Amino acid sequence: MAIEGTGSGTIRISGIHFKDGGGVSMGGGMRILSTPSSALVSLEGCKLSSNQAGNGGAIYAYNSGATVNLYSTSFDGNTANNGDDIYVSSIASVTVHSTCPPDWSGTPAAGSDLDTYVSSNSILSGTTKSFDIGTCSLSCPAGRSLRLHFMQCGKVFKCPAGQKMNDAGDGCEVCPNGKFSNPGSTSCSSCDETPGYVSLSGESGAAACEYCGPGFYADQASHTCKECEIDSYSVGGVNECTSCPSGTDNAVASTSCSPCSPGTIPTGTSCDQCEKGKYGEFGATSCAPCDGDGQYADGLGLAACKTAPAGEKPTSDRQGVESCHAGKYSTGGNDECSECGSGETSDAGAAGCRTCATCGLGKFQIAECTADAETQCGDCIAGKASMGGAVSDCNFCDGPGEYSEPMARVCKTAPAGYKPTVTGDDGLKAGIEMCLKNTFSIGAADDCTNCAEGGHSNPGESSCDQCLTGKYYDEPTNSCQLCPKNTFSISGATDINGCEDCPAGGHSQPGSGYCDQCLTGKYYDEPTNSCQLCPKNTFSITGATDSNGCTPCATGEYSLEGSGYCQTCPQHMEYDETTANCVCLASFTRVDDITCTCKAGETLMGTTCELCEKAKWKAEDGVTSCSLCSSTLEDSITEDFGSTSAKDCKCPKGTYDDGKGKCEVVKDGMDDTAFGMCLENVTIDPGFWRVNSDSTDVRECHVSEACTGGNSTSYCREGHTGPYCDLCVNGWTKDPLMLCKSCENSIVDVIPWWMLVAAVVGSLIYISKKKSRNPEEHRKKVKRFKNGGKIIFAGAQITASLPSVIPTIDLPNNVKETLKAASILNIDVFNMVSVGCWAASINYYEKALLMTPTIIAICGVLILAGRLVKKYRSRCFTSAIAIMYLVLPTVTTKIFGLFPCDELDDGSEMLRKDYTISCQDGDRDFWEAYGWLMVGVFPVGVISMYGFLLWSKRAKLKKPVEQRLEDEEITPLLFLWEPYKPVFWYWEVIETGRRLMMTGVLSTIEPGSFSQLVAGLMMNILYFGLLCLACPYNDNRDNSIAVLSTLQIIVIFIASMLMHVSKLFSEDSYDAEVMGVLLIVSQAIIIVLFLAWTFYQKDNMSTSSNGMAIKNLSGRKKKKEEKKSDEEEGGGGVSMKSSVFEATNPMSGKGGEQISGSFRQEGKGVKEEINLAPAKKSTWLGPMERIKKYMSERQRRSYEQQYDKKPKAKLDFSLSDVGEPPPPRRDKDGVEMKVISGGWDGSLLSMKANPLQEGRDGGRPGEGETIKLANKKNISKEPPKRKSIFAIPKDKLEEAPIGPPKIPPPPTAEDDIGPPPFPPPS
């Protein structure tokens, strides 16, 4: 334990055992350090044992001004280097007392001696013995207890609530009943001392008094709160309740008294209830009787009288009600019941009287109705009947055949075969019974009649059977039997003998009433005992006795079987001698034996039957006219002659039944070759579609191959569905030609595309990185490949996008397949990865949303990376522009696809690019806004960005080509300006606009319409004209490729328009096949030319730069020609010792360089030499040996063989068109000159300065003058004011010897050949 600090006060430590302390340098049990002199530390009854330390094993007091007192404190087994028990040092003071602690009594027990250490400036006083507690004890005052552990009295204790300290002061006791105490109270207080309080719960040990609240009073005798009785009240806190004043009352435990309530009146100090028969209003001093009409009071304390209800009246004492007697009534609120009127009655308690009842059907009146008794009726017995009413008895059923059952309203009549049953002595007819055998009754008779003689009947018969004609009565069977064959009975016979035999020649069947005598047209046939018909073509007028009696018809006459006469043949028939019968005339048809007529589908025309004409029909046989088809279906016809039904009337070819009784002309897309089409089954041509079978709006499909046509419910090719068959079913996805393919095949088809992409990219990387023995030549090839490839790509991308921009474009199938393969150039990842197979739910909106931000992000990352890493700034910026160049048409097409909607004839309006999206949805406004935003970002924004970037650098872009290439400031824009001449620095903006017009803008025109084809053709023709007029590319080969590529697109449009308009041949015909081959081959030729010009054609006159192209063509010795030339010119001509031209170095390919030296002009007395300083760019200096370092190995060997040993050998040179001039540039020593256009023969070369002549305007030499090369001399005598003509014969220039040039005199004005013609493109 450690005690240290700066505070003052007393620290008493009692009863603590400090044991086993150690592991410290001082005070193993306790150390007292740095305490002020005012502090007091006292150890009382403590023990320190087994402690150890370096100094003071038990107690260490050091640098302490406190006084330390030890009372009854023992030490045992402590160890230390100095002072096993106590160590005192540095002004510390320790006193060991031999007495008990203060306030203790007794004597401590002495122990062993202390081992101590005391420094010179410290004090250890008192005994040197160890003392323990011994007999020391502590007596605590009342209210305090001994805390043995701390060897001191505890704090004064407090009794809890409800208790007080006992008299001894050492405990608590419970407060008696009626008293209470608060916590810590030494005595209990009485609750009775405060009015309205009692001890809590009325038990002993109460912690508080209970307050008797409102309505209660404190009963101090029982120490409880009790309720106030009636007529008294309490507001709480009282020992007695207050009595209510007169005229008031209340309930038990009331807090106040109230005036008497309604129904009570004040009586003294209370309110008494009104008695029955009376009532009391609020505030009344007496009860009033209920003596109003119908009033009563049936209870005590009523505030108002009650009114007698209907059917009741008040009792005489008005204390209740009683019911009205029978014969009386009350409607309520009456003192007395009213009597019922005459003919009325009522029951007891009736609210009104009712009319006396009458007896019902089948009843009679026993007693009449009275006021208090209803009419009494009785039931009619069997044999009587009653219609009810006030009859006193039922009527007897005494009519013929009448009878009745009990309670009958009318008498019934016995039916036929029955008679009434008579019962009792009074002869009542109470039922019916059947007539007996051989009797009968026709009904309505009291008795049955016996059958007449010879008659018979069964029981219940309505008549007797009297044998009729042809029958006789058979007694044993009591029935009539048929008279035998060949006998008869006219009126029936009484027995078999009454059946008479037939006379001779007569016959009869069993049961006959007469014998047959054969009639006209018949004869008697004995074997059958019957009359038979006379045969055909015979007759019998009165009947014949046998077959011979049938007389044959005369010649030319006929008769049918059973005829009584012969006749001539009927109308439309003629007699046939061969068959001896009447037969139908030719064209007529027999319908029966005597009728010939025109059959169905024919009508009578003159004397013959003719087939109904087309557009007519006749359904029945006869000679009636044929009916017109127009009467049932307007403009309908029959397919053939002789139609027999109105159903044969159908619409002719080129029309269809509109379902409204009219034939309508077929719409475009409907089959015009089928006969009898109706709207429901009209045949749709392949490539067309309609919403449903009831639709007349037939539309051309965006992709004709997707629509198979026909007259089925589906017009779509397998895998296609939806409007225009433009959607794919589940498990199918679109290919680049917008045809749906099964996902099983499409995924495999995508693999070659990606392989092709990888191959192309790898080839480009290989070409750009390939090392060459001639790096300069390789760089030229790469540049030509890049610039030319860009042109090829742009044209091919436009061509490949045509199937998606113009879905119904008409092209040969082989061309379409080629375009399908080339569609990868559109760089549409959604087609390249078959997105419909793995994310079929992605619609066009979501594709646009995925594509546009992705492109922005990629380009943004590249630009940001270029800004952060300066080393790659140019490369990153160029890459961003290139990526945007590649994908811009595809992205623009995707953006413009967000706008056009297509309204179908079912009322729906769908997005033209995705017929799963309705333009009537609520989010349409958002997507239109997003589309316009992207239009601003991509087509408008990108073109504007291109234009701004180029415009801002136009001054630098107009410089010569080589100067531009060396300018690092415009190098990041290399992709935009490198292929073009300086004067056409802006051409990339035009080219990009052309691409966007051919993809995005063209897609907004009605897909597949002729207007779309015309618009596409006009766009290309316009661009073709601009291209031919400007020739914007540096390299004329690039101009040629661009012209051919644009021309190829124009040809494709023209071919499509021919196929679309003329329909001369189908897409898979032979002619289409040949046309397709030609189109494909023409495209291949352009690509081959591009590759050949790029890799296999060396620099020549077609090289385009801002200077004069000079090339060593032959190098052959021409000594004879040279000598001849010198003689002809008289020493004149052009010779080059070392000359200066701004020219393309044919050995290095860098434009704008110079061959530096001087020109010299001699002849006709004029000698002038102009020395020109070299330009600031790289310099090509003479002598000619310097040329060798720019030559290839083959050229070098050839040159050394021909020229090294013969310095005067001649070189041939060529001049070519090299492009537009840059802005003028000159210095103090000379000016540059360059060629802007022209070829070899008769072409115009423009120089910034004519080094052979001073200018005529006082300026520097010859600015803006020209040199014209011609095949013949044409030199003016006087030079022009601003332009001079420098004519040099071609053959002389070709043979110009090495040496000082010999220049003819300047031309004059008379020799001026006029303005030069505009040269054709090289």
From TrEMBL:
Every TNFR-Cys domain range: 323-377
Signal peptide extent: none
Cysteines engaged in disulfide bonds, as pairs: 356-369, 359-377
Ranges of Basic and acidic residues composition bias in the record: 1192-1211, 1223-1232, 1254-1266
Bias (Pro residues) ranges: 1298-1322
Gene3D superfamilies tied to this protein: Tumor Necrosis Factor Receptor, subunit A, domain 2
UniProt xrefs under PROSITE patterns: TNFR_NGFR_2
Database matches in InterPro entries: Growth_fac_rcpt_cys_sf (IPR009030), Pectin_lyase_fold/virulence (IPR011050), TNFR/NGFR_Cys_rich_reg (IPR001368), TRP_C (IPR010308)
Start-end of each TNFR-Cys repeat: 323-377
Protein name: TNFR-Cys domain-containing protein
